[in-house]
Amino acid sequence: MGLKRICGWIIRKKSIGRIIIIEVSSDSVRPSVLVLKEEREPELFKLGMEIDVGTALCFEGEEAPEQRSARGVEYIARKIEVYAKPIEPLPVDTMGKVPALLDTRIKYRWLLVRNPVEKAIFIIRNSLLNAAREYFSKNGFIEVQTPKIVAAGAEGGATLFKIQYFENDAYLSQSPQLFKQMLMAGFTRVYEITPYFRAEKYNTTRHLNESWGIDVEQGFINSVEDVLQTLENLITYIIEYVLKNNKEELEILGVTIKKPSTPFKRLKFQEAVDILRSEGLEVSETEDLSDYAEKKLGEIMAEKGYELYFIVGFPWASTGFYYMRDEDGVYTRKFDLDYSGLEIASGGQREHRYEKLLNALKEKGLNPENFSFYLEAFKYGMPPHGGFGLGVERLLMKMLNLENVREAILFVRDRTRLVP
Ligand code: AMO
User: Fold this and answer.
1) 3-state secondary structure 211-239
2) In this prediction, what percent of the chain has a pLDDT beyond 70?
3) 110-127 tens-digit pLDDT
4) What is the whole-number distance in angstroms between the Cα of residue 213 and the centre of ligand 1?
5) pLDDT number for residue 155
6) Contact predicate 385/184, CB 8 Å
7) Residue 24 contacts residue 69 (beta carbons within 8 Å)
8) What is the mean pLDDT of residues 365-370?
9) Whose CA is nearest to atom 21 of ligand 1?
10) Ligand 1, atom 6: nearest CA belongs to which residue?
């Protein structure tokens, strides 16, 4: 067995007579366990006496022939280099034995990622994004980047963050919607992994003011079904990837993710309304489902064995201007994807016909002049297209059974948090 060099931070130190056991948190989810024996390595043992929890170090060592620790791989050290010692006791328990309140976890996330549970969540977040990129690259999507400082919003004026852009007012982007659609004038499949900035004032377990989305747009589609298929395949790919690559992390979190069964149920919006009404809920036929109705529907669908399901055919009155309307004018080709009672994505087929799009903007009370840069892209051969936005934090939250969306992002931006 060869010599390994591992760098990290001490998260636990225990002395038992002439033995010191040091747990070092590194980049893998389980700590490395250094066993120092006075008899065997007196110099390193002496050093071990002087260093404590919080110290940043590197060590060279080899795996111990007898592995006794259930927490991580045990090493016999040959060399220890100390890089930094804490100048005061740590404000939180990085070993993870004392559970911290969510508020503390958010404040000290950068320090708590030393603890296996917190680290596991963000290693899996990384896998989720790796899986998505792998899926896209295998399926002919190219990654694009669109501006985050914009002149007009796509998702409604009330949730725009206004900023000063030299002499003009500008906004932080709520969604790459307008830009990913414009790119359908020259690419057939694009995706973007992007922040969404939304000035939503409410404080819920499912909303952030800065969240991340996986956005897709694909052209030359036959129907919205092509888009549903892409999202279904993407979600399945991500979950299978995490199940395959993150066994240890899932074990540390005590989470079992069910492999999704395909095809996901496609429930018509009107069917969802009827189901909810039959359960005694008051539900509007023209508005988006409330959080409560969405949750209730999740319970009903779970009883029928559906964890992931699409709600398709939202009423025009409830959607953004850019979704394609059915012939009846009442319903649209907009859909949501819900995961155990939480909307994790929405998307649909878009209106690609210039005149109809212009009318849709007007009907929604928007000024076409503010969207002229966008409208122009529909003049020169815009094919039928569609796509979706998938919330990274919400997907991670549901996969890992987290209670609050704030547990799924390193640095939280919400109604009350602007630092760290
Ligand atoms: P929508 O507004 O539904 O659709 O957003 C897409 C997905 O992004 C996530 N999300 C959020 N997550 C946490 N906090 C928030 N405040 C927040 N807002 C959105 C959700 C949601 O399902 N342009 C369309 C997408 C499209 O049609 O392509 C859009 O943005 O998981």
Assistant:
1) EEEEEEEEECCCCHHHHHHHHHHHHHHHH
2) 100
3) 999 999 999 999 999 999
4) 7
5) 80
6) yes
7) no
8) 94
9) 345
10) 389
Average pLDDT over residues 353-378: 96
Q: Is the alpha carbon torsion for 255, 261, 265, 266 positive or negative?
A: positive
Say if residues 344 and 398 touch (Cβ distance below 8 Å): yes
Pocket residue to mutate for ligand 1, from 128, 175, 217, most atoms within 8 A of Cβ: 175
Q: What is the pLDDT of residues 7-36, one digit of tens each?
A: 999 999 999 999 999 999 999 999 999 999
pLDDT at 1: 63
pLDDT per residue as tens digits for the range 138-148: 999 999 999 99
Residue 207 appears among annotated catalytic residues: yes
Task: Answer yes or no: 40 catalytic.
Answer: no
Residue 152 pLDDT: 84
Q: Is the pLDDT of residue 98 over 90?
A: no
For residue 215, is pLDDT > 70?
Answer: yes
Task: Give the model's pLDDT for residue 238.
Answer: 98
pLDDT at 42 > cutoff 80:
yes
CA distance 377 to 372: 9
Distance (Å) of CA 405 to CA 54, 77, 265, 281: 28, 40, 25, 26
| Burial grade of 380 (CB within 10 A; 0-12, 13-18, 19 or more) | exposed
Cβ partners under 8 Å of residue 315, min gap 6: 269, 285, 286, 287, 330, 331, 332
Chain position carrying tokens 């076409």: 368
As a whole number, mean pLDDT of residues 198-223 equals: 97
